[in-house]
Design a protein that fits this description.
Function: Structural component of the gap junctions.
Transmembrane segments: 29-47, 97-116, 216-237, 312-332
Keywords: Cell membrane, Ion channel, Ion transport, Membrane, Transmembrane, Transmembrane helix, Transport
Order of helices and strands: HHEHEHEHHHHHHHHEEHHH
Oligomer: single chain
Shape: elongated
Protein name: Innexin
Number of domains: 1
Helix content: 55-70%
Main location: membrane
């Protein structure tokens, strides 16, 4: 009943962690950067003049109207070597651009996209896998600030980390038999191998194997989504920001231009600083009803949009892609090649300094403990715990579970 009450206590609005500290830091700063850029973009859009068109003296009274009209209806981009009359009406329509007005909304969409993997991770862990990691983190916080509740909290943490009681009974029975009859076996290694074979046979189904690694597999899926999102955005930004068609890598363009002594980057093909706007004006004393006029306009807002995109491009290239690649390859290596060894080494490194492994039997039990009693999900939770607390806290929790495991075998 204590565990039930403790679990109910944790089921309040949660503000804890449910992921690794490094993941959370990268995600936090990515969203903060996007929020900052979106805030500045919104401010410049609504409180400063995003466009300034050159207005002839005879149209000074139309200045506000022309600026607002050009901003809303769109401008077309023409290279400086062309005069406005050198383009036909069809060419002007083809070069018409509208999207720059919505830059702050694009940034908000990016914020939602970068936040989506976290929402998906919450859904998978809580709704699908039934691992409420926020409760797990709340218990850890309570463990650190309420020593008087230490044993209850350790019981709660161990109930989440280790294999459920109804699934570890066969393993415990095999180990009890081993302790009861081990004096009859001259070859310790042969009998320990027999225990492993029986444990493997009892858990050989694909469903059991997937279930015992479900947290790792889903975490790996989320990291793949993060990596795919970063690579996709990098490719899109790279294609949009390149100003010269013969280049393939925007970073090279940045380096070349600054190394040549240019203080400003070349105009982006999607964020032109200079544009032309066609306005139809009806004059009172004119026999013809409408006249088309072309005005040269400066877009200081686009200069800022270009810099925003460049900052985002560099952040993705130098932070998000390397970080996600390292995480993906690290866990892929663990899953494919050495997951059981990694789990064993992790547990061993946390128990040896406290003198828990003194005999050959303890070493054997440790392998069973890490591979079957805790399994990959339990080790993943311990890694999560260590990432958000400390080595000593993790060792304390692991020692508690280890002692309970040995008590079950001896009794």
């Amino acid at each position: 009943m204590d565990l039930v009450r403790l679990a109910q206590y944790f089921r309040k609005p949660q503000h804890g962690f449910n992921d690794f500290k490094n993941d959370r830091i990268i995600s936090k700063y990515t969203i903060m950067i996007l929020l900052f850029l979106a805030s500045i973009s919104t401010f410049k859009r609504f409180y400063l003049s995003p466009i300034n068109c050159w207005i002839p003296a005879e149209f000074k009274r139309y200045k506000k109207f022309i600026n607002k009209y050009c901003w809303l209806k769109g401008l077309y981009y023409a290279e400086q070597k062309y005069e406005s009359f050198a383009l036909s009406l069809e060419d002007k329509q083809e070069k018409l651009i509208y999207y720059y007005q919505w830059m702050h909304f694009y940034l908000i969409v990016l914020i939602l996209l970068f936040y989506l993997p976290k929402v998906l991770w919450d859904f998978l862990t809580i709704k699908i896998l039934d691992f409420d990691l926020y409760n797990f983190s709340s218990a850890l916080t309570l463990y650190q600030i309420k020593p008087c509740e230490k044993e209850k909290i350790l019981n709660y943490l161990s109930s989440i980390i280790k294999t459920p009681e109804d699934q570890d009974s066969e393993l415990i029975n095999n180990l009890k038999k081993f302790y009861l009859y081990k004096s009859k076996f001259k070859n310790f290694g042969q009998h320990s191998k027999k225990i492993f074979i029986e444990s493997d046979l009892s858990q050989k189904s694909v469903f059991n194997q997937i279930k015992k690694t479900s947290l790792i597999l889903n975490y790996f899926l989320i990291k793949l989504i993060n990596l795919g999102l970063s690579l996709t955005l990098f490719y899109v930004l790279n294609q949009l920001l390149i100003s010269e068609s013969d280049r393939t890598f925007y970073l090279r363009e940045i380096i070349d231009e600054f190394s040549n002594g240019k203080s400003e980057l070349s105009d982006s093909k999607i964020f032109p600083n200079l544009a032309i706007c066609n306005v139809m004006i009806k004059e009172v004393n004119s026999y013809s009803s409408n006249h088309f006029y072309s005005f040269n306009c400066v877009l200081p807002f686009n200069l800022f949009n270009h810099k925003i995109s460049m900052v985002l491009y560099l952040w993705i290239l130098f932070v998000l892609i390397p970080f996600n690649l390292i995480i993906v390859f690290k866990w892929l290596k663990n899953i494919v090649f050495s997951l059981s060894n990694q789990n064993y080494n992790f547990v061993r490194d946390h128990l040896i300094p406290f003198g828990y492994l003194k005999t050959e039997t303890d070493e054997f039990l440790l392998k069973v403990f890490s591979q079957y009693y805790l399994n990959s999900n339990g080790i993943f939770l311990l890694r999560l715990l260590e990432s958000n607390s400390s080595y000593l806290t993790t060792s304390d929790v692991l020692s508690f579970i280890w002692n309970k495991f040995k008590i079950k075998i001896y009794n």
